[in-house]
Amino acid sequence: MSKVVIVPFENKHAEQILETGLNSKLLELKPEHKKYAYYLKEVGMSFTGLVNDKPIAAGGVFTLWDGVAEGWVLATKDIYKYPIFCAKHIKNRTEMLIKNNKIKRLQTSVKADCEMAIRFAKWLGLNPEGVMQKYGPDGADFIRFARIEK
User: Fold this and answer.
1) What are the φ and ψ backbone dihedral angles of 15, each rounded to 5 degrees?
2) In a structure prediction context, what are the per-residue pLDDT tens digits for the chain, which is 150 residues long?
3) What torsion do the CA atoms of 94, 100, 104, 110 make, to the nearest 10 degrees?
């Protein structure tokens, strides 16, 4: 039986996820772009899902300024073995972070050709705002998504 737990995110989790490989070839990063994962940790605002002590998904938000945050998710292909568990926890944690941190705008960037990630962003309640041409570290187009709280 697998041991599945949620723990606070650590930079080593991002390293392990990136070394294992992301859940879509469309999302893979070049080695020189992996350094950006170190900017993801904000204490109490990011979490990792571990299966048998191995990270399979991590996500969270980091504050840009009061009331505005950027959301992010990194996942390995192993996320597909636990889709309901992972989706449920990501959605619940997102709701908790929005409420507890008085986030009025949660935004994220989704690679324009990654339909799975676009569907997931919409499922989390984010709406597309427009295409950001040549935004990615590799020059790829991304779509800016945002969720505005009333």
Assistant:
1) -60, -45
2) 788 889 998 888 888 888 887 777 756 666 555 666 666 666 668 999 999 999 999 999 989 999 999 999 989 999 999 888 889 999 999 999 999 999 999 999 999 999 999 999 999 999 999 999 999 888 999 999 999 998
3) -20
Beta 105-111 vs 68-75: how paired, if at all? parallel
Query: Which residues contact residue 54 at a Cβ distance below 8 angstroms, ignoring those fewer than 6 apart?
Result: 16, 78
The residues, any chain, with a CB within 8 Å of residue 29's CB and separated by 6 or more, are 18, 22, 36, 137
Distance between CA atoms of residues 48 and 122, nearest Å:
21
Does this model's pTM top 0.85? My answer is: no
Give the whole-angstrom CA distance, residue 77 versus residue 71: 20
DSSP 8-state symbol, 9: -
Residue entry with tokens 């991304």: 142
